[in-house]
Specification:
There is one protein chain. The protein is an alpha/beta fold. It has two domains: 5-63, Roll (Urease, subunit C, domain 1), CATH 2.30.40.10; 67-327, Metal-dependent hydrolases (TIM Barrel, Alpha-Beta Barrel). Helix content is 37%, strand content 24%. The chain has helices at 89-101, 104-120, 133-142, 164-177, 198-211, 223-233, 237-243, 261-269, 278-283, 291-297, 316-327, and strands spanning 5-14, 22-31, 34-40, 54-57, 62-63, 67-72, 123-130, 146-153, 184-190, 215-219, 251-255, 273-276, 301-303. The longest helix has 17 residues, at 104-120. The model has no long low-confidence stretch (mean pLDDT 95). The chain binds zinc ion.
């Protein structure tokens, strides 16, 4: 079958290639869904092959690679803005409301809404973690996102499973279901360092590592988390994760606000990566993660919006602005 040629013309093309080239005005040519050529508009003229191409005029627009949202909870759209600035809103508002009203249908609809919001702002790839992730995976697939559906597990049970063991089985089945999907994959995403027992963390890590999918969890984010590890274990959350053997190349630690130099060294040594959620962290006055220390060590750091209830936006451009401002 003959391929379909499409050319986006007259755009400001931000390539993000090794040379950091920007073509303005530039073009991007596709054969079906594969980019075959890009460059300055002046180099496109006179190409006879354009005759049967569909031209899309992107004057005044930027064409760039899709952005990645490395940490969010798409199912939390109904809770956006709820209890802002309330101390420990996770336990006062969010968990009780999830227990009471979150179900499959709400996760599905909320994820579709969140996907639309992200696609409109240029985000094409998402690391989601929430409950009923089979519904989230279905919604993200239908919306055309590239995504990882992280099934959240925690000791106390959640709105979808009272027994974390059942949540683990559900998560592993979801990983298997999407194993060969071109855009969607799944993983088990433990809630956090204090909301999951060491055994639960280890079991999630074992499964995620086996299938080579991310093992992602909230890390070194909360005041009570830091106090717990200091008082009860005389450790930091990161040194604790290392001590139970769940810090590795699959580990994607979200937040990492309260870090020692030794914690950063441990992330580097174990090839773990970080989701930096500057909007969420500063909105809740939790602090600013030491990103320059991560960069100095060559730790992989990406941006996340956190859930719509945490940062109130799913827009990565906003995170870029906050990231630049705060770290300066
Ligand atoms: Zn989060």
């Amino acid at each position: 079958m003959k391929s379909v040629r499409t050319v986006i013309v007259n755009a400001k093309v931000v390539t993000m290639n090794q040379k950091g080239e920007i073509f303005n005005p530039g073009f991007v040519m596709f054969e079906d869904d594969v980019i075959t050529m890009t460059g300055e508009m002046k180099d496109l003229k006179g190409d006879a092959a354009l005759a049967d191409a569909t031209l899309l005029d992107a004057r005044n627009a930027i064409v760039m690679p899709g952005m990645i949202n490395l940490h969010t909870h798409m199912g939390m759209i109904p809770f956006r803005g709820l209890g802002d600035d309330c101390k420990d809103r996770l336990r006062v508002f969010l968990i009780p409301m999830e227990q009471k009203s979150m179900d499959e249908e709400l996760v599905y609809l909320s994820t579709r809404y969140a996907a639309a919001e992200m696609l409109l702002s240029g985000v094409t790839t998402v690391m989601d973690m929430y409950y009923y992730e089979e519904e989230a995976a279905k919604a993200m697939d239908e919306m055309g996102l590239r995504a990882i559906a992280g099934q959240t597990v925690m000791d106390e049970g959640a709105c979808d499973f009272k027994d974390p063991g059942e949540a683990i089985v559900y998560g592993e089945n979801l990983i298997k279901k999407y194993k060969n999907h071109p855009r969607i994959s799944a993983c088990i995403a433990p809630h956090g360092t204090t909301t999951c027992s060491p055994d639960l963390l280890k079991e999630a890590y074992r499964i995620d590592s086996f299938y080579e999918v991310p093992f992602t969890l909230h890390t070194a984010e909360m005041d009570y988390e830091m106090e717990y590890f200091e008082n009860e274990k005389n450790m930091t959350p990161v040194s604790f994760l290392n001590s139970i053997g769940v810090l590795g190349k699959e580990t994607l630690a979200a937040h990492c606000i309260h870090m020692t130099d030794e914690d950063l060294d441990l992330l580097k040594e174990n090839h773990a990566s970080v989701a930096h959620c500057i909007g969420s962290n500063t909105k809740a006055a939790k602090g600013v993660a030491p990103v320059s220390g991560m960069n100095q060590r060559g730790i992989a750091v990406g941006l996340g919006t956190d859930g719509p209830a945490s940062g109130n936006t799913l827009d990565i451009l906003t995170q870029m602005k906050l990231c630049a401002d705060f770290h300066k």
